[in-house]
Amino acid sequence: MANRVIEQALNQGNGVVRLAPNWVPRSFCRPGRRLRLHPDDYFALGLARGGIDERWFSSTTPADNGPNTPEGEGLSRIVTMDGKGEALLIDAVNELKGQLIGEELYARYGRWPMFGKFFDNLGPLPHHIHHSDKYAQLVGMWGKPEMYFFPAQYNNYGGEFPFTFFGLNPEVTKDRLKQALKDFSKGDNKLLTLSRAYKIDVDTGWDVPTGVLHAPASLCTYEPQFASDVFAMYQSVLLFDHTLSEEVLWKTCPPDKIGDYDYLIEVLDWEMNVDPDFSKHRFMRPIREPADDGCVKEWICYKTDVAAAKRLTVLPGREAALTEPVAYGLVCVEGHGAINGMDIASPTLIRYGQATDDEFFVSVPAAKAGVKFVNHSKTEPLVVLYHFAHHPDRKAVASK
Q1: How far out from the chain centre does Cα 123 lie?
Q2: What's the pLDDT tens digit per position in 65-92?
Q3: Nearest Cα to 388, choosing from 400, 397, 377, 375?
């Protein structure tokens, strides 16, 4: 059945397949309610699982949500246009391999190696890290570099704290940080005293390499990232006395390293954390590409090699052919129209379990041939964010 569904879906969209919304709860987070999910559905999975504050895009990565995580959580599903057929995107990748995602990419990873997400939290997150390959592989996982972009269409308000802490103040020593980590279980370990916050503006972005401490702002964040779900929380008490268990301090830690505070410091990229020019090196503004009169193309996330993203804006009443050398996933954040003859539209309200017309995955053959976008509105732009792994033009853009 899965093979027939995959073939049917690819044929319907000339190499472009529709994906169903992929909701992920987090027990330690509070929904910001900007995901356009129905107000009654943010706790659709039950209070024990936590509120839904993430939507994952083009994901073949299972969510790491502890022992109660149901099978398949975090995995994107292909849905035929009539809604009668479903198949997992990971099954399509395993079946078609390089024919779907690109021969070079499949030879390098043997899988689709990235995904995008909307992360929508009401308050700030704890100061935490994502491990590099070196340390993630000690527990059989991959590292997770990621990037942030804050689309205006999904940020009608800033939540409780629209500031992100990045890294550490340049004068902070390893001994000072180690003491804060030792104080984790005693109460507020005052980790943010050692860091600095940056006001977050919509339609801008930040690069967050592995090993860099960060406490993300309370905005709805679009995050292209490597396909992994590793992290460790270094901050014990958040704004409004939201506390964390010490268990999350040692997450993604080999059993023989639990209790070793020197190891927690070792996994950090120390020089990058204390970089006095962190903003200069990690902040990203959109960079416009040459385009025809009908559209605007921009790089929005471009500093990390293993994942990146662009924004396509098709002007009212116009159309555009988007040609790329790589496969990509996409989400429509504004407007309505058509993609390779299929409906595409940004939803107003989504019920849990309901299909939408805002998310698609584009195969390599379709991307190279060119995907046709048509804006059916005479007044509103059609805006699409799209995410991918390696791109041959990324380095040139990142150097600007």
Answers
A1: 18
A2: 777 888 889 999 999 998 888 999 999 9
A3: 397
